[in-house]
Design brief:
This protein has 494 residues and is an alpha+beta fold. The chain has helices spanning 2-30, 35-52, 57-74, 87-134, 139-154, 187-192, 226-230, 234-300, 307-336, 349-361, 383-400, 459-469; strands spanning 158-163, 169-174, 179-181, 202-204, 207-213, 218-225, 345-348, 368-371, 378-381, 407-414, 417-423, 473-478, 485-492. A 6-stranded antiparallel beta sheet has the order 3-2-1-6-5-4. It has a 5-stranded mixed beta sheet with strand order 8-10-11-13-12. Strands 7-9 form a two-stranded antiparallel sheet. Helix 4 (87-134) runs antiparallel to helix 5 (139-154) and helix 8 runs antiparallel to helix 9 (307-336). The chain is rod-shaped and about 150 Å long. The relative contact order is 0.05. Mean pLDDT is 82; it is low at 445-453.
């Protein structure tokens, strides 16, 4: 309808200018002016037609019609298309060619001007869109701005879907003055429509759905009526694509801000948690040391068979377990904060193992067999931390090994690497994945857990962190010679 109206207006402009030129020519003829002046009036009409109409067609048609009008009104015999003087044929040809050339040149200039104006409008539209979107920090406001600007630019009803954290989304439909929310029947099914999409849009329900992709995921969809999109020229379609890209950048900006806020909030919470754990652990250390020292003194003052000794021994074991837990919590906070500092120096492996074995057996009558090489095995390590690793592994082995069975600790050298192996006679891992037991807070209370029959699942996590900080490796597996678990710590000698 709009094109037909434009065609009608262009035809009226062309005919009006030609009629006016003919009237002016008749006036010039009555004043006995030369025919050259009348030809210039017709050429001026052709130029004006090219200026006020779009395309080459009207200018060229005006050129041809003006030649016939000049012949009809101003060459003898008058008011016929016949010509007595053959010289006028040259005049007609030159007049027609001149009019066509000037018309084409004017039309070309007009098209260039229109294109420049359209590009300027498009740039202003993009600038306004970017300017409005850059200040937005929430999805709801962005959705409203998108509806308002897109509907105003493309003169139609616009739909906009903004995907937030699943299953939340915003679906607005409307124009600048009237907007309302819609509901998707199936969010996941709708999103799947845009997987492996080969076109820049998806045609659904007589509408074109343009997906908006971010860096990591599908951020939203802009919906336009099919009939409006099909009437767009190349420049308008490029403008649409550019506007969608601007919306994509704005959505990515909001998404990044929200992710940063979440990360900041999580960091603050983690810092508070670590500070609390560290404060509690430090406050527990002193009374636990006092309880352990007092219980040891009571045990030394009584016979093993006496009830007092058994009570004191029980108190010592529980306090020792709590003390080990406190040490693990402190180490955990250091690992998470990146403050676990390794002070390496050459240490004898057998001395570190001996200290760890003494720590766990000084008040616990468990049989631990240690096998070390005849030659002194020197390894660069932080002796205190590696001792803590061995204590955790031995404590873990004691939980799962029957009291009448031994625990084996073996140390040896192979391929310029030192190996420390701890074996128990427990049930092994059975249905467990040995790799999972090093995860934080991994427990399996009451069954065959490796770190959870009496704990919170931190010991093996700390072991892994300390060993990896030494550029080493730790792994767990089922023993092949007997039922039980085997933990292998591998440290580099250089």
């Amino acid at each position: 309808m709009k094109d037909k109206k434009q065609i009608g207006i262009s035809i009226l402009i062309m005919l009006g200018l030609l009629c006016l030129s003919s009237l002016v020519g008749i006036l010039f003829q009555s004043w006995h002016w030369a025919d050259t002046n009348i030809i210039l009036v017709y050429i001026l009409a052709v130029l004006m037609t090219s200026r006020f109409t779009k395309g080459y067609f009207y200018g060229i048609m005006s050129s041809i019609i003006s030649t016939f009008l000049f012949n009809y009104f101003f060459t003898a015999p008058y008011y016929t298309l016949s010509v007595y003087d053959s010289k006028y044929f040259i005049t007609f040809i030159v007049m027609t060619l001149t009019a066509i050339i000037t018309s084409a040149s004017t039309s070309r200039i007009q098209l260039s001007t229109d294109l420049a104006n359209e590009n300027a409008r498009n740039m202003k539209t993009l600038y306004d869109l970017t300017n409005k979107l850059s200040d937005l920090l929430d999805y709801q406001s962005l959705s409203k701005v998108v509806i308002e600007i897109f509907s105003e630019v493309f003169d139609c009803e616009i739909g906009f879907i903004c995907f937030q954290e699943s299953p939340h989304y915003i679906y607005l439909l409307g124009t600048k003055d009237s907007k309302h929310e819609e509901i998707l029947d199936d969010l996941q099914e709708y999103q799947s429509q845009f997987l492996y999409l080969r076109k820049p849009y998806k045609e659904l329900n007589q509408c074109y759905h343009y997906p908006i992709y971010g860096i990591h995921k599908l951020l939203g969809v802009v919906i336009l009526p099919k009939e409006n999109v099909e009437l767009m020229n190349d420049n308008t379609h490029k403008l649409l694509v550019s506007m969608i890209e601007n919306v994509s950048l704005a959505l990515d900006h909001i998404y990044s801000i929200k992710e940063q806020l979440k990360l900041k909030e999580a960091t603050v919470k983690e810092r508070y948690r670590s500070n609390l754990l560290r404060a509690i652990s430090h406050d527990l250390r002193t009374p636990l040391s006092g309880i352990m020292g007092t219980s040891e003194m009571i045990m030394d003052m009584n016979n093993h068979q006496e009830e007092t000794y058994q009570l004191a021994h029980g108190i010592y074991e529980e306090a020792n377990w709590l003390y080990l837990l406190v040490e693990n919590i402190l180490s955990l906070t250091k690992v998470e904060e990146g403050k676990l500092v390794i002070h390496k120096q050459l240490e004898a492996v057998e001395e570190v193992i001996g200290s760890a074995v003494y720590h766990v057996t000084k008040n616990n009558q468990r049989k631990i067999e240690v096998h070390v090489p005849d030659d002194v095995l020197m390894v660069p390590m932080d002796a205190k931390l590696i001792q803590q690793v061995i204590i955790n592994l031995l404590d873990n082995a004691m939980k799962h090994t029957p009291k009448d069975k031994s625990i084996y600790v073996d140390a040896y050298e192979k391929d310029q690497e030192a190996y420390i192996v701890v074996e128990d006679y427990g049930k092994g891992f059975e249905n467990q994945n040995p790799k999972e037991i090093f995860e934080m807070f991994y427990t399996n209370n009451g069954s065959n857990s490796s770190d959870g029959s009496k704990g919170v699942g931190l010991g093996l996590t700390i072991c892994k962190a300390i060993v990896e900080a030494h550029s080493g490796e730790i792994q767990a597996e089922n023993c092949s010679e007997h039922q039980g678990a085997r933990f292998i710590v591998k440290l580099k000698k250089r």
